[in-house]
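Q: Got a minute? One more chain.
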Amino acid sequence: MLSEEAPVRTSPVRLAQVGDYSVSNWGDQLYPGVTADLLRRIGLLSEITHFAPLAGTTLAGEPIRPLREIRRSDATAVLVGGGDLVRFDTTTVALDHMAIPEAERHGRLLRLRAAWFARRHFLAGPGVWLPEDDWVRGAPTVLVSVGARRMAHDARARAVVTRLRGVWVRTSHAAQQFQAAGVDASRIVLAPDMVFAHPALSDPQGSADRGRQVIRRRLGIDEPLVVFHAAAFHGWPEARIEAALRSLAGLPVAVLSLGAYSGEDRALAAAAKRTGVGALIGLDADEIVSVFAAAGVVFTTSMHAAIVAGSFGTPVLTPGVAKTAEAFAACPVPPRVEGVSDEDLAETVRARRGERVSHDPTPNARAATTAMTSILTMAGVL
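A: Always. Here it is, folded:
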């Protein structure tokens, strides 16, 4: 059992957690639950209210409130993350939440609609998750388990990031960007993404048993399954997906969607129909986790899919997504993930299917737990 001792509290500390939890993307949806589990491991008694651009519910059924309501919060501290939230492309974020597929993102009218959406749902600032004013007046803000796209270095952005009490980043590149923007190195924690501490990773056998039941029920397949996931925003349009699936002919293959984000579910379902492979569309979050534990091999462009599957010891193949490689470099014991080209995909899948890789997820989970302890200390919560 992982544990980091915290002072005994007689009443819960009130926290606001801000992220992208209501978007239909499995990786982002995992964060509230993993955060709550980390706080329990630390021993912190807390009450968390979740905020995101759009209202919704967490995987645990807790309400997610719109970002604009956070100004009325009485939170003691604000946690922003996890996720790829240090970004300044507000129009793209708006289009993501409008569920506009990548291939359809063109035209002046669509840009105007995105601008209207942003004004209605986001707070003013250089980035959606980096507002100019405090999220909650007088409450310290920390970033937890975040990725950083290209950092803006203008005065407006620097004023926002240098006001942060602490920053937990999941790549050395992000750490360097924050330092270049004026954040003192003593306030930057480089540690694995918090999904490396997902509680299911400590029970690989139970998760695999549940995954085999899902695969059998949905596909009627009892042999090691080739799970295929790819997203257009990682450079995989439908034509490329179809070509990859056709190269795997003769194997038990199913596409797996992680949500409706950027039209991913529609693209994968269409490619599966045209190539005659199985489709795992619309699974709930726990089912997705268990399928990754049970799979014979996983091909994915998703960092979080690679984290979960690799931590279970499932063979993982990726097309060289830099985000995944950088996140794994922050791990004390990174899971095994193998890069593969389109040309070598079929041969590598056949060679790896059914292999199991020995992997202990504990060191990475412990590192994430320690990072949360450090960042809460910076926020004055511990």
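A: The longest helix spans residues 26-42.
Q: Perfect, thanks.
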